[in-house]
């Protein structure tokens, strides 16, 4: 039986036996009943009912007190923002896992990772080294990529191989054999049918020049970025 039903039953009992007012007062204040009133139907029985009422009053006070504690416990306010913070933290972890990254030693620019070699090699062996690193000699496809490459080259070596080569009179990128669309040849370059590989050179402001493939230069490899999740696999 629920608490309020208990209270109603007790009130009915005490209505007959008296002490309703004192019962309420006792429940409310937690003090013992002081009444000397007799019950309505059992006049003179107040001595017995007084003890019973005292006991019931104490029990009710304890019960109400416990219920109050429960309510307080259940209604404890949630710390604002905790759930949102947790969601936000999970989202950040997810974003970090999906974020495209480059391995240590590689530089990231837009969707690519670039490796600026510290050693020199012939063009074909430079490409071979790039392939060993799951990449190819750089394919420069836009003015912005070209500018970024120039800036990196300026702080390292004066000359570097890039991925363009001439095959049967046609220039192509070694990574996908596609023809050159964007170019940044230096003035009057490419100028020699016997120079079939392209490099960038400080004296021509890091623009492109065709030169013999057997020369040895440092080089630039390029590959797509991968998500951290993919790298961990
Ligand atoms: Ca590129
Ligand atoms: Ca040339």
UniProtKB/TrEMBL annotation:
Disordered: region residues: 70-100
This protein's record includes keyword Transmembrane helix: yes
Source species, domain of life: Eukaryota
Compositional bias (Basic and acidic residues): 81-98
Matches recorded under InterPro entries: C-type_lectin-like, C-type_lectin-like/link_sf, C-type_lectin/snaclec_domain, C-type_lectin_CS, CTDL_fold
Keyword annotations: Disulfide bond, Membrane, Transmembrane, Transmembrane helix
Pfam families membership: Lectin_C
Residue span(s) of domain C-type lectin: 109-222
Biased amino acid composition, Basic residues: 70-80
Transmembrane segments: 7-28
Protein name: C-type lectin domain-containing protein
Organism name: Mytilus edulis
Lineage: Eukaryota, Metazoa, Spiralia, Lophotrochozoa, Mollusca
